[in-house]
Amino acid sequence: MTRVAAVQLAPVLGDLPGNLERAADAVASAARDGARLVVLPELATSGYVFASVEEARDLALPADDPRLAALARAAGEAVVVVGFAEAAADGRLHNSAALLDASGVRAVYRKAHLWDREKLVFAPGDARPPVVETPVGRVGVMVCFDLEFPEWPRLAALAGADVLAVPTNWPRAAAHAEGQASEVVIAAATARLNRMAVVCADRTGAERGVDWTEGTLIVDADGRLQGRVGPGAGTAWADLDLAASRDKRQTALSDLLGDRRPELYGPLAGR
């Protein structure tokens, strides 16, 4: 079993040093309590509701910034996935997530599906979600709204991901009919449809009039909720059998990936 932690933080818009310190403290605390995989929210180092591109640029980090690598040092032997505003070499900004382990930054994913006003600040990524072989297993990475495009997590599952780490900032909206935020339902369905564990680290704290769902959760490969935080800052915990994600059989004769009919799915690639 692998001990997994999803940390619900309250980033402070504009406080890059403070956010980095809070993130490092949270990672170190989770690692001390036995976490082998720690997931932090989307844009955890900067805050989210930017007034302008210039404001975001002042808070952005290049992917090779040593302050990101410092989070890996805080984690010891744990694997960390953290959302950050990335300053790319070509001058563009990306809403990104870094996967780090004891060796440093292993992968950087740039959010491909931008939500609402993010499109006024960030350039979308154009690469598939990475799936990285780590000491805890194969970890896939994407960011928030990406999860609402079923083709995207399916790509991670097809690439062999044992667990999908998803930094999120879910704005509070109408609840699901049973009182569950729609994003929480989507995360559970994604896990179930792909037989792949899903870990979503949401945020808390109001920012320029925006409140958050505070939907941090951990779902196992069968789509069963294993950990939640609820209101306020905190950490969701779960012990997951990540190897279970590699067996896609539902019955002796049913296989979620083996029973696919790609020859029939052509329109899915259309515009």
Could you explain how this protein is built, in words?
- α4 (151-158) links the parallel β7 (137-141) and β8.
- The mean pLDDT is 94.
- The strands form 3 sheets. The protein has a 6-stranded mixed β-sheet. The protein has a 6-stranded mixed β-sheet with strand order 6-7-8-9-10-11, covered by helices on one side.
- The protein has a single domain, classed as Nitrilase/N-carbamoyl-D-aminoacid amidohydrolase.
- It is built from 5 helices and 14 strands.
- Helices cover 20% and strands 27% of the residues.
- 47% of the residues are buried.
- α1 (16-32) runs parallel beside α3.
- It has helices at 16-32, 53-59, 66-75, 151-158, 182-194; strands at 2-8, 37-39, 79-87, 93-101, 104-110, 131-134, 137-141, 163-167, 197-201, 217-219, 225-228, 234-240, 249-251, 254-255.
- It has 271 residues and is of the alpha/beta class.
- GO terms for molecular function: hydrolase activity.
- It holds the Pfam family CN_hydrolase.
- Residues 2-242 form the CN hydrolase domain.
- It comes from Amnibacterium endophyticum.
- This is Nitrilase-related carbon-nitrogen hydrolase.
